[in-house]
Amino acid sequence: MRAWIFFLLCLAGKALAAPEPVGANPVQVEVGEFEEPTEDVEEIVAENPCQNHHCKHGKVCEVDDNNSPMCVCQDPSSCPATSGVFEKVCGTDNKTYDSSCHFFATKCTLEGTKKGHKLHLDYIGPCKFIPACLDTELTEFPLRMRDWLKNVLITLYERDEDNNLLTEKQKLKVKKIHENEKRLEAGDHTVELLARDFEKNYNMYIFPVHWQFGQLDQHPIDGYLSHTELAPLRAPLIPMEHCTTRFFEACDLDNDKYIALEEWASCFGIKEREYLPARAGDTQKFPPQGCSNGPGWWGAGEGDAGVTPAAPVP
Fold first, then answer.
1. How far apart are CA 220 and CA 177, in angstroms?
2. Residue 162's pLDDT is what?
3. Cα–Cα distance list, 168 to 19, 174, 182, 232, 312 (Å)
4. Are the C-beta atoms of residues 255 and 289 closer than 8 Å to each other?
5. Which Pfam families match (predicted)?
6. pLDDT above 60 for 8
7. CB distance 85 to 198 below 8 Å
């Protein structure tokens, strides 16, 4: 349970890090308070072409002979020193890297090679033995996940008085769940109890499932989850839930490496008539920052490109 709480704090941290004024930024600061004179800013930009030149993970900006910015592979030794075990990440080569910076810098140096093509960030934390996911465990996974998503939203709602972690429309939806006396309180419940509660209070779980999809469906917002979009959820989960990889593989029913909204909802036992509301503009986007920096799902990293799905719970 402590691990879930830690991941919840990561999720809330992402919300606090949202750079756009969509209700997710709890601190509104006047830009002018920290602005340098316009002339100085323009002078700095002119002197440093890399000032506003973005490079993907594993690369840094350098200036060529023509004073033009270009992205080159970062030297892993230039990555910031790390101190905690939570900064380490595990690659699909079963090697532990000191941080995501060290991993992506190493991957960049292998671009164009077979080894580099196969190397992806697998999960957050040091490499460890991940036991195989049994069929019975795969069936239980969505029950716990649904309950957790519901509790994440309730916690955000309870903390949202001053932080604007949810939009007004989202608050109204979560308020109905929060005030429902039939709601199952957060706790370590048996799968039997979770299954009964889902059947009894089905409507409480529809929005949390759609909400999580909306959090991940960002680049672009198209009703499909790509490798990179799923990463902020998948990478922290694997060390705690060993069925994570198999579950998301099962959700991709057509094996096209994307999870459509319909596939996502079906995986969590949401009925077909409830598939569409998530695209009605009631999802607020939080950038995938704070918990991970863009690893993909079952072995797919940022920019990278059969199991029978768990039976939906009635």
1. 30
2. 65
3. 18, 10, 24, 24, 31
4. no
5. FOLN, Kazal_1, SPARC_Ca_bdg
6. no
7. no
